[in-house]
């Protein structure tokens, strides 16, 4: 574990250091990055971490700071090591701007291989009116201390997964049965979510949070790999400090694909992010 | 109404004629098109119709025929008239391929103005296994004959909207109260959906179906324009012949934006499409 003694802060944390982007001199909109081995599941880099990195590049490239809606199509698996993010401003409007970004890594000859392509519309969350009209309810999840952390026994994610040490993930016991061979069969996953060094959430870390829980397929009894084809996230509100609650539901597994619908709620009981992904179902 | 006497068929219908694309000689992946005035709401071209047109271009450009997941960011309003669709093959895999497309129109000087940019992953729906594991249920909607068509009185969409004549849309009376000044306040919209000339649904027309109902904001008592920022659609199954049922729900209107979650079910009771859009909320 790489916990720091003092609580990390937004801008000075593991997550911020590992999503650092370096503008390339003379190439506007191009950013070099290093995919950290700290955010891997087995050997692949976590898709939410990748998305946060691309999100940071778009935040730098676009005239508006905050992701409002981010659509990502996953092309090839990422591995720890160097990467380059190429961004393009598609449209700069008054309240919203739209950008595109691709993250590339390099093959043995140094040629760029595209990992993920993203279309996103950005705005300013702090400029939005306070009006809320919602019938959405936070996920029903037991108190933090009654949920299961990595220390509880079975790792939340099987295999040698470095990301487990970067997150303080506490699973609802009702959706953790798969870890002891007794999945609920419902296709649900719920957890408390914090970064391990205590850094509070911001819009960029929400892009990580929507894709950081074990796959809902585990709760259906399918313990294999469920690679993301496409993941779209809406950031609806700047999150308040404190732990997040994440609830994910799969309703329809069909034809070898499934959707994962995630909601992220903050400590002020606000729905801060909604996401949906299409993933390949693990083979039964 | 432009009903034909005989039932139109896939490939020979209003929808097919109005989504015709013409490959440009010498420019691979570039397609000319004409946005038909038949699919407008007030003066703007319907976003689902646009998406179907772009979807057809991607189907021509990619090695796989069917949209699996299509993410569209809407940039500027489209108007009837000429357009050009520029596609790019991002990745061609064995089971899935990913493409990008932009639809442009032209300003007074002939310069291209981008209307919509799309990232999409395509596959072959007929090549998928038949396995289904679902807890999703079709929308609860009264029988076709008890729902409200355009002839029932108030137009399903207010104003002079040509698209009304292209669709056989029959609204659930429970979600049509806004038309007589009594919205339910729930943010729901449900309807039977067919093309007016009787053409059966296919994956491309599903891209139209997810964005063809009146906005859920109407059911919240907000009767203004709710422009789409981003719309992502998953096509999960090739639809069976016969009318579709479309259910749309908004759970969270906040900060001046709302999501619309749509499901489309076919006559065989299968969930054939899921979509979510982020839209600007009409001003109260």
Automatic annotation (TrEMBL), chains A, B:
Spans traversing the lipid bilayer: none
Family matches, as InterPro entries: ACOT8-like_C, Acyl-CoA_hotdog, HotDog_dom_sf, Sec_Metab_Biosynth-Assoc, TesB_ACOT8-like_N
Domain of life: Bacteria
Protein name, entry field: Uncharacterized protein
Organism per entry: Streptomyces lavendulae subsp. lavendulae
Organism phylogeny: Bacteria, Bacillati, Actinomycetota, Actinomycetes, Kitasatosporales
């Amino acid at each position: 574990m790489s916990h720091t003694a003092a609580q990390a802060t937004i801008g000075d944390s593991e997550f911020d250091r590992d999503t650092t982007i370096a503008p390339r001199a003379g190439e506007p909109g191009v950013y070099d990055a290093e995919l950290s081995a700290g955010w891997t599941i087995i050997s692949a880099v976590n898709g939410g971490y990748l998305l946060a990195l691309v999100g940071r590049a778009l935040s730098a490239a676009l005239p508006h700071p905050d992701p409002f809606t981010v659509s990502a199509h996953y092309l090839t698996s990422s591995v720890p090591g160097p990467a380059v993010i190429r961004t393009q401003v598609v449209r700069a409007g008054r309240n919203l701007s739209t950008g595109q970004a691709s993250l590339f890594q390099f093959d043995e000859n140094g040629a760029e291989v595209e990992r993920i392509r993203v279309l996103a519309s950005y705005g300013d969350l702090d400029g939005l009116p306070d009006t809320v009209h919602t019938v959405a309810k936070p996920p029903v999840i037991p108190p933090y201390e009654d949920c299961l952390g990595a220390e509880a026994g079975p790792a939340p994610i099987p295999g040698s997964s470095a990301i487990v040490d970067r997150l303080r993930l506490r699973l609802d016991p009702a959706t953790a049965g798969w870890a002891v061979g007794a999945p609920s069969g419902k296709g649900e996953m719920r957890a408390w979510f914090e970064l391990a060094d205590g850094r509070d959430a911001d819009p960029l870390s929400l892009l990580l949070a929507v894709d950081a829980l074990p796959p809902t397929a585990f709760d259906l009894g399918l313990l294999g790999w469920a690679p993301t084809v496409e993941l779209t996230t809406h950031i609806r509100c700047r999150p308040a400090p404190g732990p997040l609650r994440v609830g994910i539901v799969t309703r329809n597994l069909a034809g070898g694909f499934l959707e994962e619908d995630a909601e992220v709620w903050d400590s002020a009981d606000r729905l801060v992010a909604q996401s949906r992904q299409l993933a390949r179902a693990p083979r039964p």
